[in-house]
Amino acid sequence: MPKPRDPHTVAVANGIATDPAFRSVTPPIYLSSTFAFPAYEKAGPYDYTRTANPSRDMLADTLAKLEGGAGAVVVCSGMAAIDVVLSRAPRGGLVIAPHDCYGGPHRLLAAREQCGQIELALVDFHDAAALAAAMARRPALILVETPSNPLMRITDIKAVAAAAKQVGAKVAVDNTFLSPALQRPIELDADFVVHSTTKFLNGHSDVVGGAVIAAAKDDVEALADWVNTVGVTGAPFDSYLTLRGVRTLFARVERQQANAAAIAAFLNAHRQVRAVYYPGLPSHPGHAVAKAQQEGFGAMLSFELNGGTEAVRAFVEAGERFTLAGSVGGVESLIAHPAPMTHVKMGAEARRVAGISDSLLRLSVGMEAEADLIAGLEAGFAAVRG
Fold it and tell me: Domain holding 94: CATH number?
């Protein structure tokens, strides 16, 4: 049987009916922590689950094929995935990251700089002069978050990768918000793709995990060795659940982004909304780049309410269908207030510089009926109006 090439088929079919023992259609879960040696001083393909596990390997193989990489490592969280990529930078090497990145990486990068592992430059990737100045310092690694969390800023991956190549830097792209259903950074010359598999890849808010896909085989081997050394490999059961989620990735994302586009248009026309951040809107400054490097605009958006934090409180407490919670990418719709939630550890000044205001709300749009979601938002607006 020829190997599937279309990502839709890879997501659904990779690993199906490959069980050698009982020919089960769905790949089984291998929960064993250890595996028997076939003979004295002769190890089999698996010996200890921290090092390798069939369930985790099946997920890694699927993600590598979806992203077009040479291989992948599956780890215990999205933050672990970013930290694993940082291990590829030499001690004291310069790491460039976006000044408005998600609060978790912002905190991790600051901690790694404080302990002397890296030198950190937080840069506005849309300030050409600032980015060029940072590149001139010959970084070891460049972290890209596109679309950014929570302001949905778009970075031209191919342009950053070309500039990085000139100075000998590697590029890692966080593809969590879009997934390989909508964006494949390795095709745009990135060296690494990072995922919080907790989000769209799993899609059901019942797993915490992460993954790194590498374009080059030697990077895959180095990542796998480091992940085994520090012991942050993903659990077999989590890998099974994530792979099950991947089977429906394309169908979920198609429905979710259709809902998101409708909601963005609704919010963009609403008099109680100051601004909407969604790359699918033609007015979005990154619309043209997003259209060129993505296959859709995704299911994430954010917007600013008129009226400040009191308006935000009233909106969130009275709104319907959107659950107040910190994650994204599940089949259910969620709402978050970044300033006191996902980005609180950045501090007020860093948020101000990044443009994350106290009136900003982030939506992760799910698969519910479009009309119900819009009605739920309107209930929030009604409470703000009093």
Answer: 3.40.640.10
∠ Cα 367 370 374 (to 5°): 120
CATH code for position 255: 3.90.1150.10
Can you list the positions of beta strands (E) in 52-205?
71-75, 93-98, 118-123, 141-145, 170-174, 192-195
> Which residues are within 8 A (CB) of 321 and not within 5 positions of it... i.e. 6 or more apart?
333, 368, 372, 373, 375, 376, 377
CB 262 within 8 A of CB 244: no
pLDDT tens-digit series, residues 10-42: 999 999 999 989 999 999 999 999 999 999 999
Catalytic site residues?
A: 50, 102, 174, 199
Any domain includes 190: yes
Give the strand pairing for 273-277 and 210-214. unpaired
Q: Spell out a b/e string for 328-337, using b for 16 or more CB atoms within 10 Å of the CB, else e.
A: bbbebbbbbb
Please check the confidence at residue 3 and state whether its pLDDT lies above 80: no
Across residues 206-230, what is the average pLDDT?
A: 98
Beta strands of the chain (E only): which ranges? Answer: 71-75, 93-98, 118-123, 141-145, 170-174, 192-195, 210-214, 273-277, 300-305, 323-324, 334-336, 360-364
Tokens 């700089």 locate to 113
| Sign (positive or negative) of CA dihedral 24, 26, 32, 35 | positive
pTM: 0.96
Instruction: Clarify whether residues 278 and 334 are in a common domain.
Output: yes
